[in-house]
Amino acid sequence: LSKQYMYDLVVLGGGSGGLAAAKQAAELGARVAVFDYVTPSPKGTKWGLGGTCVNVGCIPKKLMHQAALLGEAVHEAAAFGWVIPDIKSVQINWEALSVAVQNHIKSVNWVTRVDLKNKKVEYINALGYFKDPHTIGGIMKNGEENVVTAKNILIAVGGRPKYPDIPGAIENGITSDDIFSLSQPPGKTLIVGAGYIGLECAGFLNGLGYNTTVMVRSIILRGFDQQMANIIAEEMEQRGVHFIYQAKPKLIKKEADGILVHWVDKLGQVQKDVYDTVLFAIGRRALTKDLKLENAGVICIPDDDKIDAVDEQTNVPHIYAVGDILHKKPELTPVAIHAGKLLSKRLFANSSETMDYTNIATTVFSPLEYGCVGLSEEQANIIYGEDNIEIYHAYYKPTEFFIPQKDNSHCYLKVVTLRNNDQKVIGMHFIGPNAGEVIQGFATAIKSNLTFPILKSTVGIHPTSAEELIRVFITKRSKMDPKPQS
Ligand code: FAD
Ligand code: NA7
Questions:
Q1: Radius of gyration of the chain (CA)
Q2: Which among 105, 149, 432, 478 could bridge 5 via Cys, Cβ 3.0 to 4.6 Å?
Q3: End-to-end Cα separation, the chain, in angstroms
Q4: Which atom of ligand 2 has the smallest separation from the CA of 331?
Q5: What is the pTM of this model?
Q6: Strand partners, 271
Q7: How far, in Å, from the CA of 18 to the mean position of ligand 1?
Q8: Cβ atoms of residues 279 and 200 within 8 Å
Q9: What distance in angstroms lies between residue 301's CA and the mean position of ligand 1's atoms?
Q10: Which residues contact residue 86 at a Cβ distance below 8 angstroms, ignoring those fewer than 6 apart?
C-alpha cells in the first residue's frame, strides 16, 4: 500500500458499485474514501447516501410494485373467502405509501453510513472531480473544497434521468427521481418512454388506481425479446393502462386544469390532452460531465458520455470505472456490485477473477412480471441462425389464478436452445407471478451450462409456476398449439 498518497482508493459515487468496491477494498486493508453527492432534481428532490438503487430506483420501485400487487390481492382474497366489508371503497392512500417508502429508504441511508464507518471507509459528502490524475477535489454543501490524493481512483457516478428537448419538459415534467417521494398523489399520469422504467412506473401507478398512459416512440422494451415485450404491453393494456403508439411529445405546458401535452401522432397530426403528472422515462444520462475527466486524461465515448473500460480499467491505468457509467454494459445494481467487488479483489488481494457480463438475468416488474436470462429469440436468430436454434414455448395456468378467475392468457414462457447434440440452453424467458424469483435459479443453471436434456430431467416442484419451465416440450417449429390442452 502506498505512502505517497492519502488513500489507496478513492471512489467517486456512493451508489451500488462504488460502495461495494469501497467496502471490499477496506476489508482487504486498503485506505479508502468515497465521495457521494446528490445534485437535486429540477423539481428539487434530493436524497441520502446509497445511490440510485436504494433511493430512487430498485427499492422504492419494488415497494410500490408490491403496494399495487396487494391492492389486487385484496380483491382476490374476497374470492378466497375473506370477508372484506365495503370492498368497492378499497383505495390507496398515496401519502401513507410514499411516507412508508421514504422511511424505509432513510433507514437504509442510515445503515449504509454506519456500515461505512464500521468498515473504516471515509465518506465525504462532496461533488468530486479530477484536479489531476491522482488528485480529487470535492465541492461540499457549504461551497468549500476537500482535496485528496489517491493511488487508484474508481469512477462510479452512475446516471440521472434525461429530459426531452421540448418546451416545458423540465419545468413541468418529473422523472423517476421524483415519483417515489411525490407529496401529492400523481393523479392522471402520462409516462413518456416505454423502456424498463417507463413500463414499471406505468404498471404500479395503474395498479394503485391512477389513470395511466404510456407514450411509445417506437417499440416496447427495446433490447428485450420483442414477443415477450408485446405480451407485457398487451397485459398492461388489459389492466387499463393506455398506450399511445408511434407518438412523440412536442410541448408540455402548465394550465389551470393541469399539464397540457401536445404530441405528434403516427400520421404526423398534433394531438393533445391534459394530465396531472407527466413523467419522463426516456433513458438515463451518464454523469461524466462534472468530473473534468480531461484533467486526468480519461476518455469518454462521445455518443453517450460513458466510459469504455476493459475489465473496468479506463485508458488511464490507475483509474477504473464500474456500474451504469460503463459503455454498453447492463444498467443493473447487481452488475455494478459484482464488478466493484471483483475489481477491489484484483487491486488489493492479488485476485485475477474478472467480471463476466454475459448471461445476466433481469426482471421487468410489470404487474405480471417478466424475467429473463440469456439471449432473446431475435439475438439467438442473429448469432446462430434460425436453423440452428430451437424455441420451446408454452402458455400455462398458475394454480392461484383459478379461484379469483384471474386472466391467465398472458402467462407464457420460452426456452431458447441450440439445435446441436448438446442442446445448450441459451435463453430463458418467463412471464408470470414472481418472475424474478423464478428466473434467478435458472440463471445459475445457465451459468453452469444447462442443456435442454438436463432441464427435462429435472423434477419440478408442484404446484408452482416455475415448474412450467421444466415441463415445456412444444417447439415453435412444430407449429403445435402452446396453449394448455386441459
Ligand atoms: P448509482 O447507484 O447511480 O450511484 C452513483 C452515485 O454517485 C449517486 O449517489 C450520485 O449522486 C453520485 N454522484 C454522481 N456524480 C458524483 C460526483 N461527481 N461526485 C460525487 N458523487 C457523485 N437495477 C436493478 O438491478 N434492479 C431493479 O429493479 C432496478 N430498478 C430500477 C428502477 C429505477 C426507477 C431506476 C432509475 C434504476 C433501476 N435499476 C435497477 C438500476 C440501478 O439502480 C442502477 O443500475 C444502479 O444503481 C447503478 O449503480 P452505480 O453504482 O453505477 O450508480
Ligand atoms: P431505456 O431502457 O433506454 O428506455 C427509454 C425509452 O424512452 C425507450 O422506450 C425509448 O424509445 C424512449 N425514448 C427515448 N428518447 C425519447 C424521446 N426523446 N422521446 C420519447 N421517447 C423517448 O431507459 P429506461 O430509463 O427505461 O431504463 C434505463 C435503465 O435503468 C434500464 O436498463 C434499467 O436497467 C434501469 P426507443 O425505443 O428508443 O424509440
A1: 24
A2: 149
A3: 67
A4: 34
A5: 0.97
A6: 263
A7: 10
A8: no
A9: 19
A10: none
